[in-house]
Amino acid sequence: QVQLVESGGGLVQSGGFLRLSCAASGIISSGYNMGWYRQAPGKQRELVAQITSFRSGGSTRYADSVKGRFAISRDNAKNTVYLQMNSLKPEDTAAYYCNARFNNENYWGQGTQVTVSS
User: Fold this and answer.
1) How far apart, in whole angstroms, are the C-alpha atoms of residue 106 and residue 56?
2) From residue 80, how far is each of 8, 32, 89 by CA, in Å?
3) What is the block-wise mean pLDDT of the chain (118 residues), using blocks of 10 residues?
């Protein structure tokens, strides 16, 4: 059974930082394209950051709104993917979801809430 468990969300002031973690079980996350998505109330879920699988080179890409502030990384030994979020803004407030994707496999975590106060 595949599980993606997010943690690290919370309430932080504008300008602060958080680090989200996504611990995978049932899959070897390095073999998957791993992504962080977010969804704010009344808005569509959007891709925040992605890191490709090891075989695809582990390249990263980011939404324009978070470039220079967020960084995605993985620790293969821990089978975990991280999202370091710096210089947080109120508009970053959302539920953040971890995603693992490879071919026709597509898995989601349950989400973790990030709230940034002004």
Assistant:
1) 17
2) 13, 12, 25
3) 97 98 94 97 97 94 98 96 98 98 96 97
